[in-house]
């Protein structure tokens, strides 16, 4: 049994993330014919077809999807392993984007670990909604983005339809999306229910309104903001009900459920996006690995929450 070729696996991941052999060739700095030959040899190595013709392009077979899952893990582990031994002298800049919903909860752990390991590196942080961060990733304005997956994926898919260079979203964490109100007020009993939510295009807003409509409850939008601190202030003041991922809950909030007339909401999938075009960025590779570890190990230990 000959070992798998890491370079071939890296090319496979690039094809899956870019959506074409041509863009993958640019990302891995090879000719398109070299990329095609790598995939032919990889198919010969595992004895299975990886790609099928799909119109003018190709798509992954079922075996190809299985191999892609392993390829991502193998490539990531190799990158993280090498970075562990080379990271001491790394300097430069890495640009990270995330919605402010996640900044308060995730950034202290992520930035703390990264700064201790790489004191000469500079991290630029941009806080914007997920769909805007997907645009920045596509344009190369930022290197990494922690996003709400559905919002970013919608933007990425629309971009692929136009033939640009948007990349996929890697799921790194799944949390419950919860109804929240003030633990000191009873605003959730009002009819129509006053809501504090994001912009009309926000997936959480759409899911919340649809859930209330299915339950036969009327609602009115009282407060609109993409800033989670502002939305949380409206909730804690007893002005409105909102929806938040579990890790964003704060002391003084009460979680609502079906017994209160609020149906369960879809899960919140948190993803990681990478800008792949251009020169390799070791700092971005290392930060991506630390983001995965931090979010995987994150404990949901917000104090003082009431769930009734």
UniProtKB/TrEMBL annotation:
Gene3D superfamilies: Periplasmic binding protein-like II (3.40.190.10), Winged helix-like DNA-binding domain superfamily/Winged helix DNA-binding domain (1.10.10.10). InterPro entries: LTTR (IPR050176), LysR_HTH_N (IPR000847), LysR_subst-bd (IPR005119), WH-like_DNA-bd_sf (IPR036388), WH_DNA-bd_sf (IPR036390). Residues 4-61 form the HTH lysR-type domain. Keywords: DNA-binding, Membrane, Transcription, Transcription regulation, Transmembrane, Transmembrane helix. The chain crosses the membrane at residues 221-244. It comes from the Bacteria. PANTHER family: HTH-TYPE TRANSCRIPTIONAL REGULATOR LRHA-RELATED, TRANSCRIPTIONAL REGULATOR. Belongs to the LysR transcriptional regulatory family. This is LysR family transcriptional regulator. It comes from Methylobacterium indicum.
């Amino acid at each position: 049994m000959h070992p798998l070729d890491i370079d071939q696996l890296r090319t496979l991941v690039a094809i899956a993330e870019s959506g074409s052999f041509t863009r993958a060739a640019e990302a891995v700095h090879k000719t398109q014919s070299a990329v095609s030959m790598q995939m032919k040899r990889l198919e010969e190595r595992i004895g299975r077809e990886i790609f099928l013709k799909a119109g003018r392009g190709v798509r992954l077979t079922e075996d190809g999807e299985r191999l892609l899952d392993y390829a991502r893990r193998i490539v990531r582990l190799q990158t993280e392993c090498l970075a562990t031994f080379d990271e001491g002298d790394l300097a430069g800049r890495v640009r990270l984007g995330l919605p402010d919903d996640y900044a308060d909860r995730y950034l202290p752990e992520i930035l703390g670990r990264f700064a201790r390991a790489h004191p000469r590196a500079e991290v630029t942080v941009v806080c914007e909604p997920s769909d805007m961060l997907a645009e920045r990733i596509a344009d190369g304005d930022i290197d990494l983005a922690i996003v709400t997956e559905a919002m970013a994926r919608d933007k990425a898919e629309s971009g692929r339809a136009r033939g640009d260079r948007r990349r996929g979203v890697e799921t790194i964490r799944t949390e419950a999306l919860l109804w929240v109100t003030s633990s000191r007020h009873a605003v959730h009993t009002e009819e129509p229910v006053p809501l504090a939510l994001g912009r009309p295009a926000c997936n959480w807003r759409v899911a919340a309104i649809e859930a209330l409509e299915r339950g036969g409850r009327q609602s009115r939008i009282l407060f609109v903001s993409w800033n989670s601190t502002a939305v949380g202030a409206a909730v804690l003041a007893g002005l409105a009900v909102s929806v938040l991922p579990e890790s964003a809950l704060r002391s003084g909030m009460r979680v609502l459920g079906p017994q209160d007339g609020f149906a369960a909401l879809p899960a919140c999938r948190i993803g990681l996006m990478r800008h792949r075009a251009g020169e390799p960025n070791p700092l971005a590779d290392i930060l991506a690995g630390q983001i995965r570890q931090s979010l995987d190990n994150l404990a949901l230990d917000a104090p003082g929450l009431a769930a009734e």
